[in-house]
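Dear U.,

Please find below the material for section 3 of the report. The protein was modelled together with zinc ion; I have listed the sequence and SMILES used, followed by the predicted complex structure.
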Amino acid sequence: MTPHQPGFSGGMLDRADHLRADEAAIAALRQDPRARVLMLEGFDPLLTPQGGLAWCGVDAVEPDASLILLGLLQGCAHFVVLHEQPNEAPLFRSPRVMGVLSVLGPDDMAIYGAARSLLDWHGRHRFCGRCGGATQVHKAGWGRRCSVCATEHFPRVDPVVIMVAEHAGRALVGRQASWPPGRYSALAGFLEPGETMEEAVARELFEEAGVRATRVRYVTSQPWPFPAQLMLACVAQVQSDVLCIATNELEDAIWVSRDEVRAALAGDKNARFLAPPVYAVAHSLLKHWTTA
Ligand SMILES: [Zn+2]
């Protein structure tokens, strides 16, 4: 466990799995006057003047609104409204939500991340992947069931490896052309079927930067809600510092020293590069590397 707690992790809600299939218990929670509903605008959170997530009572939403049970806190149910919108546009990270993430506290960020991933999943799983029939909300929003073949579908999480290659006391960071000027971060890629985490790290490093990993160490993980990844952060020793950059994936990649990484993480104006944002696991990973 890294001492640098990544963003979107450490949420305090009890997910109360044992209640999800108990419709009477869910109905009672919904009628409890202490119950709270997360306030969103589209998929972006609304904030209180203090910069926390804004909540309203169940009486403020439509009586027949579909509510997902996010979890319990001191026995008080926390819900989010699920809107079944047939033609919803694909979701992207809006500049607004990126701004919100810089002020949300860790617990609120974790609650919001889980809610957002769930809402996104519902929007993309309105039909059964097995028979094409319409699906309906199931288990207090933690699943969907096909109305034709009764197959149950559950929210998916996609594993992604994110890694720093290490050689002779320096770390490899790269940048994509779409990123803010000067921003460099850890390399990353989706796991493929049939791979271990370590194999995926080695494959991605070779594909993107042409370096061969000899040893891969797991550091920490982070749920990432755009839309629903699990980031697996690793450090990989590599054989050589000679790079062969895949320009379809990366605009550039550079080797940086611990002092250069420390300066970037500290936001030093003279730093060699702009660090990833503090809520991204790449930030936690680079911080870990400076102390390893
Ligand atoms: Zn079906």
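For the text of the report, you could mention the following: The pocket of zinc ion is lined by residues 128, 130-131, 133, 146, 148-149, 151 (CB under 6 Å).

Regards,
Y.
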